[in-house]
Design a protein that fits this description.
15% helix; globular; 2 helices; alpha+beta; five-stranded antiparallel β-sheet; 5 strands
């Protein structure tokens, strides 16, 4: 997926400056792949997955699948979580 498809709304920045408040952002991995992602906190995991499905630590996760990522950069997106749910 290109960053245009991801609604990029600004330049990529170092991952250590990314917001960890659960908002949707674009993450770019070291190999150049970009994904919509969010930071998943322990509270998010408890609320969304229940007590039986707890991970050990908060982590960067692909939006919609919540599989882990190791991004090196991030950029803001114009897309909202609600808009992405309408996509196929």
């Amino acid at each position: 997926m290109t960053t245009d498809d991801l609604g990029q709304d600004g330049p990529f920045q170092p991952i250590d400056s990314a917001p960890k408040d659960g908002r949707l952002i674009i993450g770019r991995e070291g190999n150049g792949d970009s994904h919509l992602m969010r930071w998943r906190t322990k509270t998010d995991m408890l609320e969304e997955d229940g007590p039986e499905e707890q991970g050990e630590h908060p982590y960067w996760a692909r939006w919609r699948t919540d599989t882990g990522l190791e991004p090196v950069e991030w950029a803001p997106t114009t897309l909202t979580k609600e808009e992405t749910l309408d996509r196929a």
